[in-house]
Amino acid sequence: MAAVPVVPGVREAGGPVLSRAARRGAQGLSDRALAWWFVGPTLVLLLAFNIFPLLWTVFLSFTNYRANRPNAELAWLGIANYRRVLGDEAMWEHMRATAHFLCWSIALQLLLGFVLALLLNRRFRTHSFWSTAILLPMMLAPAVVGTFWKYFFEPQYGIFNRFVELFGGAGNLTMLGDTTLSPWAIVLVDTWMWTPYVMLLLLAGLRSIPAYLYEAAEIDRASEWFKFRRITFPLVWPLLLIAVMFRAIEAFRLFDLVYILTGGGPGGTTETLSYNVYKVAFFGFDTGRASAYGILMVIVVTIAAQFYLRYLNKLQER
């Protein structure tokens, strides 16, 4: 009987199965080459849409480039744009508006998110329904949220003033047009939108606490306050800090809600740093200074995040 020829990559009758690497080698494609075929497109997109724009922004921050005069002669200014940004007194007002929003929104989101997480952790009958309902604001686009709340706060036909009248108020509040109330309106909208995110993180932390710790505390007849103070809060604390970091980074670069709700007004009271960068770049067309502004914001966030991560690492080592 004539011998059957052996085809590379195919098992002989009764013979061993060739390994995956051997089959790929027979086809002329190594593991490293296959990995680059998969990773390569992602790296190209990363360079095109992340790395290159960042490097280009750094370059523009040292020049006099203006978007409305792209063909003008490009001059190298060194750190002059950075000096103009840091020497602008209005920039510190925008910093104050950003700090006001950041501190109050994070404080409210942590407080409400923790309370909601504790309630949903009890697993009552309608637990699934309320979990889904609370997460709905986080699923909406910021543009949709901003438009909804803009009509909600409208002084003439908005629902907000009807609620104020229902609880005995005057019902003539202009939340988005008052220099005192408008910053709080931004805080309220952001809290409504992102409290579910904080709640989700903390709820995951609560669900990860071993049940035997609470069982041991109940055997010792520990009070609910003791269990919260000595078990719940210490074990959820790392996730609480992570939630603070994520929300602080997002709040520091807040733009969309300000753009839709107030446009930085009234009188610049809600003009955050990100919105001011937008004004410098697209109203003043001072692209070089706007680039320096943005790079300074990136540096501040990066340095703050590094110190914060070091603190988290120290907590884990204890």
Amount of helix:
55-70%
Q: What gross morphology would you assign? A: globular
The low-confidence runs, each spanning 5 or more residues with pLDDT under 50, are none
| Topology as a string of helices (H) and strands (E) | HHHHHHHHHHHHH
Oligomerization: single chain
Largest sheet: none
Rg (CA only):
28 Å
The secondary structure category is: mainly alpha
How many strand segments?
0
What does this structure look like?
By secondary structure, this protein is mainly α. 69% of the residues lie in helices and 0% in strands. The protein has helices at residues 20-26, 31-60, 80-87, 89-120, 127-139, 142-152, 159-166, 182-207, 211-219, 224-252, 256-261, 273-282, 287-317. Helix 4 (89-120) crosses helix 8 (182-207), helix 4 (89-120) runs antiparallel to helix 10 (224-252) and helix 12 runs antiparallel to helix 13. The radius of gyration is 28 Å and the shape is globular. The mean pLDDT is 85.
